[in-house]
Each structure stands twice: as C-alpha cells, then as structure tokens.
Write a structure and sequence with these properties.
about 150 residues; alpha+beta; 5-stranded antiparallel beta sheet; 3-stranded mixed beta sheet; elongated
Amino acid sequence: MAGKVKTICEEKIVPIIEEMGYEVVEVEYAKKSDGMNLTFYIDCENGVNIDDCEKVSKTIDPVLEELNPTEDSPYILSVSSPGLDRPLKSDRDLKRHLDKEISVTLFAKENGQKKFDGILKSYDDKSITLQTSKNIQNIEKSKIAHIVPIIKF
C-alpha cells in the first residue's frame, strides 16, 4: 500500500506543489511512532520556512481528502524542509551546489580512501569533479554512496 500511496501523490500532488514554486525532494509514506505519516519534503532556491510548509499543507490537504490515496486509512500529513544537510541526490541538487564544499562517501575505498571533501567543480551523467585540498578528483557516480553539503556556521 505504501508504494501505491506514494505513486498517487507523486502523480497528483507533486505537480500542485511544483506549480506553487517549490521542488518536491521526496514523498514518504511510512509508519512512525504516532502512526502512518505522509510527508512531503519541499525545497526552493531561497530555502523553506514554516510559513512555506503551512501554505503547501493547506493547499494539498483538501486535494488529498478528495483523492483518498490511503483508502480511508488514517495518516498524519506533514510538509517539511529536507534540512540544510540533506543528501544531494539529483542533478538539480548538484547544480545548486556547484562551487560549494561537499563531502562524498564511496561504497568502497579507492586508493585507500573512502571519503573525499572538496569543492564541486562539475558533474555529468557519469561522474562528478571535486577540487580537494590535494588535487582534482573525478569520481564515478556509480561508486558514490552518499553526497552531503559541508555546512559551516
């Protein structure tokens, strides 16, 4: 059922949120300590605040009521920011982080190293290019387990 709910929401609700000017980073329908939760993680170029989340929630709630993707099973609707340190997964994420510091973790060590920190210089369908403190590192995307921004306060 979780897959069906997620698919319905991706097809019918995500376009509504995108029309509002937000990017939907992820749709999650999962059991939490307080029951089933349907969560939409949203982002936009200037970041997301509580008012953005409330606006999206109020817009999609009546549409979800009409769609009834959970077939009357109760759930809690949440709209949230993915957070500053969310993993970079899409080309859109990478584009937003060009010339910024990121941390890349590989599935397996390469030349004795599994983690690389540096400035994202470029990317394409198959690899990313990272300027580390030592050199320019080309890393195949298929070898990457995780990419996150480096946050400095």
